[in-house]
Each structure stands twice: as C-alpha cells, then as structure tokens.
Amino acid sequence: MTIQHDTRSASLGPADLPAAAETLRTWLDEADRVLVAAGAGLSAAAGYDYGDIDRFRELFPALYRLGLRSRYLLGVPLPDDMMWGYWAVHIDDIRFGSRPNSLYRHLRSLVGDRDHWVMTSNVDALFARNGFEPDRIFTPQGDYGRLQCTVPCTQETWAGKPFLERILAAYDPGTGRVTDPAALPVCPNCRAAVFPNVRVGPEFVDGAYMPAGDRLARWLGDAPSDAPLLVVEIGAGFNTPGVIRRPMENVVRHTPGARLVRVNPDHPEVPAGLGARALSVPFGADRFLHALTA
Q1: 49-62 pLDDT, tens per residue?
Q2: Is there a binding annotation on residue 280?
Q3: 270 pairs with which residues across the strands?
Q4: What mean pLDDT is predicted for residues 276-291?
Q5: Residue 153 assigned to a binding site
Q6: 231 annotated as belonging to a binding site for a ligand
Q7: Is 78 assigned to a binding site?
C-alpha cells in the first residue's frame, strides 16, 4: 500500500509568524462559519503531553521504577491491578480536572459568536470543559469519561467517574497497584472486563458519538453557498490521518470558497491543489494562538 502524503511543503520561518497570524485574523473576519479540528498536538500544547517524562514520574512513580517513561501504555503487559491504577490516575488527571485551560479558552474567544463546530480526535473533553457547546463537538475516537464492555455484550456505555473513584480509593501510588480486587471494574451485564470507551479496535462502541457526526455533516451540507467556511486544524499529524487530517482536506476541497489553516510544528504541509485557500503554519498551537493577540 502506498501512502500519499501532502504535496506542498511549508516555507514559513519564525519571522513569518506575525504574517500567518494576520492572515488567520483576516480569514476569521471573512468567515461566517468556523470548523475547529484538533488532534493530540493541541492538548499537548495546552499542557497535556502524553510524552512528558517528568509528569509521568510524578503521577506514576511505581511504573517509572519499572522503566516506563510515557503514558503511551496501550499494549504494555501489566497486571490488572496495575493497569487499572494507571488508567484511574491518568483519566482523573486528563479528563476530570476542573481547572480552566488558558489555551483552549483562548481558542474559544477567537471563534467568538461565529456559527461553529468542533471535530477532534482527542478524548479528554477539553473543548467542552472550556466553553465550547457540548452538542456541537464531534469526538469520533470516544471519551475517557465513559467505560464499555470489552466483548462487547451491549452497545450501552457507562459514566466512568464512579468506577474510577472506587479504584482511586484503593490505589497505592507506592506500588502502583489497586489493593482491593473488588474495586476493579467489570461489565455490569456479563462480568467481562471493561475498558475506557475509546477507539482501540473493532470492539469500540461508538453509538454515543455518531449522532454528533450526523449533525456536523448536515451543518456542512446544508449551509448556503455564500456562507464562507474556515477550517482551523490544529495539531493533527499522521498517527491517525484518516480521523482529522484527511477529512478536513476533503471538506475544504469540496466546499466552494472554503479555506484551511493547518497549525502543526512537525507536519504543516497542505495539499498543493488547495492553492491560496490553504495556509500552512509550522508552529506549535500555543505559540501561534498567542501570536494572534500580539
């Protein structure tokens, strides 16, 4: 299989950051509708970096002593009591923190009162937690806030916080283990193992998220042809390009007059066929969004 990468390389250097910010400001002023699309790079820039070794050592000292160094633990063989200790601490930190996030709040203020939607591969609910309307956010990869059966025996999912609170109450950070086996969650229906309701394989239960995807598709399809659309894509690389990156290119390609702003320090390239309707921004989200108010 041949993977076709983007065909136009970014040429902006540090001196071009103010120019890129000015272009986005102009395009925002000219847009009636805004679609914000985000990948892991946005949350990393906002302080939720799964590769942060210091934060990993702080939260998971026992796992650090075992030689692990990041939160990318899918596929790492750990006993259930250690794995659920990890998931409970990780999800509590990433998904249920109550503090507002300045970068997401800044992005919300930039969108303002324009008609808008959000599509994100992130499962941390940071958009909804920072002022974006929950019923206008499409999260096709799931939500750390819910659990599902791994079989799955049902298409039902469950609020994860009560399960996680029981785990955390029995969690020993010194050993990284859940000390009470009764605190380990199982499916309420069939007693099989459960897992966060996020896409890791064909067993993913996506029914809770598809209605938002349908509403987003209608919003895109039903708009008047004279209502300019701006797609602002932030931090979406090539880990899962079929979730955010490729769909956003297709939206702009097939929407007359639509524009794409791609913000990504590592993979900012945009398709050559979009011509002047695409802006490649090779900077981190935090640096670029802050430049918009400079």
Answers
A1: 999 999 999 999 99
A2: no
A3: 8
A4: 94
A5: yes
A6: no
A7: no
